[in-house]
Write a structure and sequence with these properties.
The structure is a single chain. The chain contains 15 helices and no strands. By secondary structure, it is mainly alpha-helical. Helix 13 (about 275-290) runs antiparallel to helix 14 (about 295-320).
Length: about 350
């Protein structure tokens, strides 16, 4: 065999050996597949109509909260009546629910608890449909107790403040009748133009324009989840139907489904029959009280009972039923009735 032939044989053998060795080696592992891209749900979105409605309620609570006992003259009582009668019952009820929804959006637990289910578009749409079909679904979502806690604790402070004012004003309506009170001289005099002041109260009981500044503040807070300086709190179920509606609006907003194109849904959720019945009855009782009232001290009682106290009562009915506080005014009325008094 020639040298060249031997070299060719060795080359072929080497190639074959290399092929065998290659077949026995462990293949390099394939690179891991990239994780699936998960798109976040749309940004929190709440239409301006909700902020406008909430601003009307907040402004009215602030105005009524400015009424104080110790009226110095008859005109100051009429000014309180003008302040307190300037609201529409249905608008006030809607504003209460709208404000509750913005308070709920200040709960990071609730917003995060709702949004965690919104990354998948199909699941997000199912959740939106479920909330619209049954608002109570929103009350079962994670963080609902924290959101309800913010609503109840924040509005509970208003209830306490308004109740204290009401008790002071109603009590003063009796104190001012005492002979030692120097205001008695004008307090027992008949109210001037009784029919006119009643008609004025009815005329002012119409929808009010929202405050641009207050609306902007609440609108920003709803989208940022901050700015209202609230103290966290917890409130367990059951929730009132009106609070459930507030949670439903907040849940839709957290899913990015309460923007300007969803105004029909948020308007519907802002209406709740029990809540509106309370504000309507309050307005009717105010008119009835003014129709029966004659001297100024009776108008004072009307302001305390059917403006300040009724606002506290309707707000308490919204947050949840509470036992009405005992009022010494009733005992005074029973032991020292005033003939012809329109106090009720």
């Amino acid at each position: 065999m020639s040298l060249a032939s031997m070299r060719r044989g060795l080359s072929v053998t080497a190639i074959a050996a290399a092929a065998v060795l290659a077949g026995c080696s462990t293949p390099e592992p394939a690179p891991p597949a990239p994780p699936p891209v998960v798109s976040p749900p749309p940004a929190v979105s709440l239409n301006e109509s909700v902020a406008h409605a909430a601003s009307v309620y907040v402004a009215y609570v602030r105005q009524v909260g400015s009424i104080k006992a110790g009226f110095p003259d008859a005109e100051s009582i009429q000014a309180a009546l003008r302040t307190g009668s300037a609201s529409d019952a249905a608008q006030l009820s809607r504003g209460m629910i709208a404000y509750g929804s913005i308070l709920a959006l200040q709960s990071p637990e609730y917003v995060a608890g709702v949004r965690q289910f919104g990354a998948d578009p199909a699941q997000r749409q199912r959740m939106i449909a479920s909330i619209i079909a049954d608002p109570a679904y929103a009350a079962t979502l994670p963080g609902a107790e924290a959101a309800a806690g913010l609503i109840v604790s924040t509005m509970g402070k208003d209830i306490e403040a308004l109740t204290a004012i009401a008790e002071a004003v109603e009590g003063d309506a009796y104190t001012i009748q005492e002979r030692r009170d120097p205001r008695r001289r004008w307090a027992v005099q008949p109210v001037a133009d009784r029919a006119g002041r009643l008609e004025g109260a009815k005329t002012r009981s119409v929808a009010q324009l929202p405050s641009a500044e207050e609306s902007a503040r609440l609108f920003a807070a709803a989208h940022s989840g901050s700015g209202l300086n609230l103290t966290p709190a917890q409130r367990g179920a059951p929730f009132t139907p009106a609070v459930v509606n507030s949670l439903a609006i907040a849940a839709l907003a957290a899913l990015g489904a309460a923007g300007e194109d969803a105004k029909t849904n948020t308007d519907a959720l802002s209406t709740e029959s029990n809540n509106e019945f309370c504000t309507n009855m309050s307005r009717l009782m105010l008119f009835q009280c003014l129709a029966a009232s004659r001297p100024s001290y009776e108008d004072m009682f009307c302001a305390g009972r059917h403006i300040v106290r009724d606002l506290a009562t309707c707000t308490a009915q919204y947050t949840g039923p509470i036992a009405p506080p005992a009022t010494p005014v009733v005992a005074i009325a029973e032991t020292n009735p005033t003939p012809g008094s329109g106090m009720n």
